[in-house]
């Protein structure tokens, strides 16, 4: 059975000191590096938030405050601080993440009008990123998922992986939650398990 490691959004803006820093985000990087060192993956894929500066998910572009919600193209949209703007330092992968064995990069969130948490598709399910096509082309059947953040991009990537027919495992030690609300991370784990994701310690 061919397997892939999907590393979600380990970018400067989500790490310590970033515009949208996830608590304890930097702690997962050595764990992810050790996974790549100690396991044989047929493919290792990075996903990368890559937003235009005028992206509609940014509070600053809607005259809103961070933390408010709006309806964007028919779906609820949380208002985020500006983050992972294409070409910026914040959008770059963290320097400590070992990328020697990475075989593919998927950029997401490039459409100004629609956010994209999942590595597979945008939040409206209008546009695919090409990740599913890439994995199927390489006959991947099992995916292991790590990265940031557990209650947003990791959760949606994992549940979409199940929906696309992959045996899907989440490495709990390789992810951290934003926890906008205190239980968001815990709730995300329960939701992933309910949808068929296997959570590894």
From TrEMBL:
<comment type="similarity">
    <text>Belongs to the isochorismatase family.</text>
</comment>
<dbReference type="InterPro" id="IPR052347">
    <property type="entry name" value="Isochorismatase_Nicotinamidase"/>
</dbReference>
<protein>
    <recommendedName>
        <fullName>nicotinamidase</fullName>
        <ecNumber>3.5.1.19</ecNumber>
    </recommendedName>
</protein>
<dbReference type="InterPro" id="IPR000868">
    <property type="entry name" value="Isochorismatase-like_dom"/>
</dbReference>
<keyword id="KW-0662">Pyridine nucleotide biosynthesis</keyword>
<dbReference type="Pfam" id="PF00857">
    <property type="entry name" value="Isochorismatase"/>
</dbReference>
<feature type="domain" description="Isochorismatase-like">
    <location>
        <begin position="4"/>
        <end position="199"/>
    </location>
</feature>
<dbReference type="GO" id="GO:0008936">
    <property type="term" value="F:nicotinamidase activity"/>
</dbReference>
<keyword id="KW-0378">Hydrolase</keyword>
<keyword id="KW-0479">Metal-binding</keyword>
<dbReference type="InterPro" id="IPR036380">
    <property type="entry name" value="Isochorismatase-like_sf"/>
</dbReference>
<comment type="pathway">
    <text>Cofactor biosynthesis; nicotinate biosynthesis; nicotinate from nicotinamide: step 1/1.</text>
</comment>
């Amino acid at each position: 059975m061919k397997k892939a490691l999907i590393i979600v959004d380990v970018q400067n803006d989500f790490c310590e000191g970033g515009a949208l820093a996830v608590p304890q985000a930097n702690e997962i990087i050595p764990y992810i590096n050790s996974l790549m060192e100690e396991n044989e993956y047929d493919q290792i894929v990075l996903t990368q938030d890559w937003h235009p500066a005028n992206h509609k998910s940014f509070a600053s572009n809607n005259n809103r405050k961070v933390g408010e919600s709006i309806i964007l193209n028919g779906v609820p949209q949380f208002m985020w601080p500006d983050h992972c703007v294409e070409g910026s330092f914040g959008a770059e992968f963290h320097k400590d993440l070992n990328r020697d064995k990475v075989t593919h990069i998927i950029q997401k969130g490039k459409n100004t009008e629609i956010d994209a948490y999942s590595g597979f598709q945008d939040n409206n399910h209008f546009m695919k990123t090409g990740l599913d096509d890439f994995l199927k082309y390489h006959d991947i059947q099992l995916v292991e998922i790590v990265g940031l953040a557990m209650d947003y991009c990791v959760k949606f990537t994992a549940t979409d992986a199940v929906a696309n027919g992959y045996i899907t495992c989440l490495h709990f030690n390789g992810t951290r939650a934003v926890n906008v609300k205190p239980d968001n991370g815990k709730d995300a784990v329960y939701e992933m398990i309910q949808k068929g994701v296997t959570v590894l310690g």
